[in-house]
Amino acid sequence: MYITDFAGRTAFVTGGASGIGLGIAKVLAQRGARVVIADLRSDHIDNALAQFAGGGRSNAVTALQLDVTSREAYAEAAARMQADFGGIDILVNNAGVGLEGPVLQATYADYDFGFGVNIGGVINGFVSFMPQMIAHGRGGHIVSTASLAAEVVMPAHLAIYAASKAAVCHYCEAVKDELGSHGLGVSILLPGPIKSNIHQAQQNRPEHLRIGSGFGESEAQLAQRQVGDSWMEPEEVGNMVADGILANRTYIVTHGIFKDWQRARAQAVLDATPDVADAAVRGI
Ligand code: NAI
Ligand code: GGE
Question: Is residue 102 in some structural domain?
Answer without folding.
Answer: yes
